[in-house]
Specification:
heterodimer, A: mainly beta, seven-stranded mixed β-sheet, globular, B: 126 residues, mainly beta, four-stranded antiparallel β-sheet, 10 strands, 0% helix, 44% strand
């Protein structure tokens, strides 16, 4: 089974900053890597699919890159509404799995 | 608009069973591969199970294999998760989710989870 390792596990940044989260797969997952945002008490929301494609309605301040085993997720111009936990998820083969999550807070 | 509504959660004793439902609307349910994902309190997301568009293929996480059964009734636009032999480790919010696109002839093709239900909480406790 493929393991997904996210870092950092938590992150604190100021309004207007850019932040980057990394996700490493235990083996090559090609481009089958997605990113989700989950706000407290809510269901996750798809932000990016297949490494770098923005989901419908997602602003371009969110972006993703990478290939193979190493991937990054970036938020530009951080705003208070971006406070959430962010997860990566692979779907190269079953069983699918998520990273452990990165909790983002505002300083 | 796409809507997924889960139900069937609650408090159940260890060893007992529970059946979750997820009613879909706003899209052609029978065209989409469907998944269950769960989240233990204060923990991360765990993928649980997938079922093909026609119900002919299913796959489970090792943690639930042999105890949980995913199924669907396309005539009623409903997804199910039958959970048997429950333990405290199964305590979680359970979400149903669609794949990103329909038209998948395999068990799973576009496993980016485009639409999610609001979740239903299962608590296993004596």
């Amino acid at each position: 089974d493929i393991q997904m390792t996210q870092s950092p596990s938590s992150l604190s940044a100021s309004v207007g900053d850019s932040v980057t989260i990394t996700c490493q797969a235990s083996q090559d997952i090609n481009f089958y890597l997605n990113w989700y945002q989950q706000k407290p008490g809510k269901a996750p929301k798809l932000l990016i699919y297949d490494v770098s494609n923005l989901a419908t309605g997602v602003p371009s301040k969110f972006s993703g890159s990478g290939s193979g085993t190493d991937f990054t997720f970036t938020i530009r111009s951080l705003q208070p509404e971006d406070v959430a936990t962010y997860y990566c998820q692979h779907y190269d083969n079953l069983p699918y799995s998520f990273g452990q999550g990165t909790k983002l807070e505002i300083k | 608009q796409v809507q997924l509504v889960e139900s069937g959660g609650g408090v159940v004793q260890p060893g007992r069973s529970l059946r979750l439902s997820c009613v879909a609307s706003g899209f052609s349910f029978s065209d989409y591969v469907m998944h269950w994902v769960r989240q233990a309190p204060g923990k991360g997301l765990e993928w649980v199970a997938v079922i093909s568009y026609d119900g002919s293929n299913k796959y489970y996480a090792d943690s639930v294999k042999g105890r949980f059964t995913i199924s669907r009734d396309n005539s009623k636009d409903t997804l199910f998760l039958q959970m048997n032999s429950l333990s405290a480790d199964d305590t979680a919010e359970y979400y149903c989710a669609t794949e990103g696109e329909g038209g998948c002839s395999s068990i799973s093709c576009y496993a980016y989870f485009q639409h999610w239900g609001q979740g239903t909480l299962v608590t296993v406790s004596s």
